Amino acid sequence: GTFAEFVSVAADRLMEKPSHLNFSEAAALPLGGLTAFRAIFTKAQIQEKQKILVTGIGGGVAQFAFQFAVAAGAEVFVTSGSDNKLQTARKHGVSGGFIYKDEFWVKTAFNETGGFDAIIDSAGGSSMNDYLKLIRPGGRLVHYGSTTGLPKSLDMFRLFWCQASIHGSTMGSDSEFVKMTEFVNQKKIKPIIDSVRSFDDIVSAFDQMHEGRQMGKLVVTF
Ligand SMILES: NC(=O)c1ccc[n+]([C@@H]2O[C@H](COP(=O)([O-])OP(=O)(O)OC[C@H]3O[C@@H](n4cnc5c(N)ncnc54)[C@H](OP(=O)(O)O)[C@@H]3O)[C@@H](O)[C@H]2O)c1
Q1: Ligand 1 pocket, CB under 6 A
Q2: CB 120 within 8 A of CB 56
Q3: Structural element, H or E, at residue 73
Q4: Are 55 and 62 in contact (CB under 8 A)?
Q5: Which residue among 2, 186, 203, 209 is buried most deeply as judged by most CB within 10 Å?
Q6: What is the Cα 78 distance to its own chain's centre?
Q7: Which CATH superfamily is domain 24-193 in?
Q8: Tens-place pLDDT, residues 99-111
Q9: Residues contacting 201, CB < 8 A, separation 6+
Q10: How far is ligand 1, taken at its centre, from the CA of residue 122, in Å?
Q11: What is the pLDDT of residues 70-86, one digit of tens each?
């Protein structure tokens, strides 16, 4: 976002808006969509029918990650701090969800799914060792953020015995942006918009994010 009424950009930085999206939906797409696209396809290399976990689905990037994975034919599971957000994700085609605040969510997730081929995460912190318990042999952990900080330790034994790999991912290239837009067009994916508000009300958007009440994108108009 720019938080400006007018911006000047080079013409080669512009792309046509997918026709099934209105302007608020299109404004929600670029950074979140691009970051999710690289994480899901370039780094995690997800395939049809693979089991995927996307964590913290209230996040702006995570909502695209789980929608892209569902559209690609993967069997997608999610985590959230909120039951309502899990319900919203189910309406968008995810197979199941877990509350990461529950003490035993890792055990429940393992018993229900048998583990995941890839985990897409931006929480980081101590959760990394939980994800190592949930990753299948040869699986991929992809991190595009570290909202809860750095891990205090890392279970190296699980990492190598499991032949798992850890990938960092950030934003994406011009060609990934083109592919992401084509994928959104082809699959008719719509960003989940939490709310649209005027610039005068922008502070309330930050309050909402701070309290973790958002599900999807907070769009600001002029
Ligand atoms: N690398 C990149 O290109 C890129 C691009 C954009 C953002 N980021 C980074 O990615 C992170 C997320 O940004 P965002 O804008 O997508 O999200 P966001 O809107 O800031 O939301 C963060 C989400 O993290 C989830 N969360 C909090 N604690 C968690 C935990 N212990 N386990 C799992 N999930 C947890 C929450 O999910 P629930 O609401 O479901 O509880 C929350 O909604 C930030 O660190 C940001 O800097 C990176």
Answers
A1: 31, 35, 55-62, 79-82, 85, 100, 122-123, 127, 144-148, 170-171, 209, 212
A2: no
A3: none
A4: yes
A5: 209
A6: 10
A7: NAD(P)-binding Rossmann-like Domain (3.40.50.720)
A8: 999 999 999 999 9
A9: none
A10: 5
A11: 999 999 999 999 999 99
